[in-house]
Each structure stands twice: as structure tokens, then as C-alpha cells.
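for the writeup, i need someone to sanity check this before i put it in the appendix. the sequnce is what the collaborator sent (i think, or maybe the updated version? ugh). structure was predicted straight from it, no edits. if anything looks off just tell me and ill rerun, i have time this weekend
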Amino acid sequence: MSTHSHWMQNLPTHNPLNKDLIADAVVVGAGIAGLSTAYQLVKAGLSVVVLERDQIGSGETPRSSAQVTASLDFLYQELVTIHGREATRLIYQSHTAAIAEMERMVQTEQLDCDFRRVSGHLVPAPGDDATVQKEASVHRGLGFDTRLSTPPAWVKGFAESLEYPQQGQVDPLQYLLGLAKAIEKHGGLIYGSSPVLSYTGDHVVTEQGHTVHANHVVITTNAVVSEHGKYSFRLTPYRTYMVSLKLTEQIEPVLFYDTSDPYFYVRPDGDMLLVGGADHRTGEPADPKERWQTIESWARAHFPVGERLEQWSGQVFNSADGIAFLGKTGDIYVITGDTGNGLTHATIGSMIIRDQVLGQENPWIEVYRPDRFPRGNYRAWIKDAGRSIGHVFDWFKKSAEVQNLQPGQGCIVRQGLSKCAVHRDEKGELHAVGAMCTHLGCEVSWNGAEHTWDCPCHGSRFASDGTVLTGPARAPLAKLEHPEKLELK
């Protein structure tokens, strides 16, 4: 089954860096986080260089639902327990401010990205009305501007919902393209095909051997690399699935999220409804067809939809305390741990980093402090870390047999004391790479949805030929010759 994100499109390419440069700031990564930060800094009058391993929009941005919302992966009743009341107020305030900041940037730069304000509804899963009522009570106690309401008439099967007013939605790639143009208009430089080999607090070196010297180094690569495992054990990688369905009647643009675990999330785009959910930990067994069918069946029970048009999956990195790691840590700045809210967390991070670079006060700095250990939710954090460590022992699992592989399938096979990651392409030919993730040595597994090798420990992902797609791994899987000659024992 092929996958295609609703937002996928061809974007302009940027040439690689071919010389050494000096700038006030260098930003590594040209996704939402990187370009949002670069924009904030060039608008503040700094000279900025952006370095991207591939090209703009080549990461997780086009795989997003592109909801712009203060409704988070963790309910606020959970966040109060973890962070306390005052910090939780700041969390809500920061996400609300991020929506407004994105709107301001769109208007100021006249970005053609279909940004619009919409309401969002937290709806109860079957039999879970009490959770929504409790959430509404927590919101009232914290002074939020949400309210209990009845979902629109064209939605079926939902009881009273918690309405978030003035949320947003956007075309994420058009937003990225607009930001890139605005950055270059204001004097910033963007380089594609410029993977970074190393960095410190005052310079970055690319794999081509060129150096950018800067007073400020910002790492926005989703999974932070070269931090000696600092974030690998603080973040848990998850795959999330989405489908687009043809609407059978006209509806108003409204966002939805329910209280299931994992939860479903919904947004319209023209005559289509984008619906996501069915998350699971990256690299752990899952049938993608079942995941997409679960989402589609749930959508059909509640919304006026017809045929399925597209299906795809994406990756998020979740923190144990429900919010991202944003700002200065040591001598660098980072944005990581989007926890299902990449657009708003990226925008918050860009504003925090801007203010830190300029020496200005920002009320959110301490809340999102990137060198913190997860607050208050230690049991979940330890459990996730233990689950990662447990995958180190996958090496001892029984291997599969190549002869049983069907076209489009992959498996792990043993050859002597080593293991190989083998897949059969659609033409029936076998391909093999090393099965050990080049990050910390865990065994990868086959992702049948995207035809990739995924690491269950820390979320590194590799193309079927072993090329790195997602960090924290930096080196490719070793390519093995003559897979048809593998001896299975």
C-alpha cells in the first residue's frame, strides 16, 4: 500500500554551502522550528545562516495534520499535576501566544498559506464524558477562555465538548515556503544538501568541510544529534497515522480531538477531512493497514465522509512531562520534543530563543528549560527509558527466513553472529543492510507503511537502502552485498 501525505509537493531547492561563513547565528534544520527561529532572528537584525541536511520540507512538516492549537497531547488536568498551576497557566498562555504569533507573521509577510482561525473541540471517547467535564473544571480554575459547548450538528455521536476558541489551521509547506522567502528577503541565507558533521557553541562544520562561525548555534533537527544521549533518554518516539477522506457534505472548518488513548485528531481542508491517530511506539510491531482502517472506521462513525483518498504516517518525539525542550542548554540552543504539537512548540521555541539571544525577559524560559529532567512524571519516564533499554536485547530474538518474504516486506535474519535487515522490493529482488542502528546499537525493524528500517530505542529511521532519514543516528546502515546468498540458521 503506497503512502502519500496530503501536503506533499515539490518545493524550491537550495544550493549547498560551498564556503566558510561568519554570521551572528547559525540554525541547523529547515523545518518549522528552524525557519521560525531564523525568521525571528533576522527580524531582530541578526545575520543568520540556515543549514539543512536535505531540503526545506523534507522532514516531518509535510506529515503533520497542521493543527495550530493550545489543546495538547497531555490534558491540562495532567499538566497541573506534573507542573503545578502557575506553570500550567504559562503553558496554555504560550501556546495561545504562538497561534497569535503565527497569525502575525502570516499577515506581516503576506504568506499565502491558508492560515485561518477556527474553533477546536475536545470530545469524549465512548463512556468518557467525565474526563471532559473534569478538564473543563480545571480550565475554569486556571482562568482559561475555553467553555463547554455542543459540537456542530453535522457531527454524530459526541456528547458535550470542551471548546477552544480561536485556534488555527494552516498549509504547513506553504507556510514553510513563505517563511523561507521572508528570511531571504530580510538578509538570511539558506543552504540545502548541507548535512552538519559537528558543532560547538561558536561554529558548525558541514560534511563537505565548510565552517560557519557564529555567536549563537541553534539545533532544530527534531531529534537532537551529537548530544551524547542527552535527549535520547528523555524523549520517546512514536509513529502516528493519518488518512484523508472525501467529505460528502459541506462543513465548517473545525478541529477535533478526543480523549481516547491514543487519541484521534481531525481537521478539514477544503472538500477533504484529515483524520489521524492510532499512534504506537516507533519500531514496535504494528500493521499499518489496520491502523489506517481503525482511523477510517472511527471517522465514518462521526463525520460525513466518503472514499479514502490518501494515507500516510509521521513521527513525533514525546516528552514524559508533556511539553517540549526549548531554549539554551550549555552553549547551544535547541528545539526538540514536539510531543504532538510541533507548530506551536516550534513557534514558542523561536520566541524563547530570540529573547535569550537578545538578552530579553521571557516568562516561558523556565517552564520549557531544555536541560530539565521530566517533571513529576518520573514513573512514565523510567518506564519508557526501560523499554528503550529492553530493545537492546532484541539481538537474541529468533530471526526470520528470507524465503518467506513477499514483495514489499522486510525482516531480520541471522548470519552467524550478526544479523541482517533484509527486504524484498516490489520486483521481487532482495536487498540487505546491517540490522544494528548506528546510534546506540539497537536492532531495527521493518516499517511496512513507509518501507523504512526504524529503531525502537530512540526513533532513528533509515531508508530501505540504509540511508539516514531521521536522527539521532547520523551514519547509514551498512550495505550488504549478495543478500540472496545469506545462509539462514
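The mean pLDDT is 88. Residues 416 and 489 are 8 Å apart (CA to CA).
thx in advance!!
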